[in-house]
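lol forgot to send this yesterday, sorry. struct tokens for the thing we talked abt
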């Protein structure tokens, strides 16, 4: 485990601070930025860059589990994307 942490730190993915005699490791990238990067990588790797295919796969996997409020939120996001795409 220490070797992996050292490698991640050398690559700039994490940093550490010493706190009360212990090393505390933290990411070097903000959570939102890391999420966007991970999603981009996922869409590129598994869906040939197609956001539509990625969303369709997520919906196929969880459609029966989505609440009405979640579906409404998704519809709102789609509506906003349509308006933003036609400026």
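and heres what i got for the seq, position by position
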């Amino acid at each position: 485990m220490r070797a992996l942490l050292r490698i991640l730190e050398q690559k700039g993915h994490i940093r550490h601070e010493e706190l009360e005699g212990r090393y505390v490791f933290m990411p070097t990238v903000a959570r939102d930025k890391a999420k966007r990067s991970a999603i981009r990588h996922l869409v590129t790797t598994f869906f040939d860059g197609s956001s539509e295919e990625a969303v369709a796969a997520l919906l196929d996997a969880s459609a029966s589990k989505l609440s009405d409020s979640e579906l409404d939120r998704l519809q709102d996001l789609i509506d906003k994307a349509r308006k933003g795409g036609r400026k």
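The longest strand covers residues 14-19. anyway ping me if u want another try
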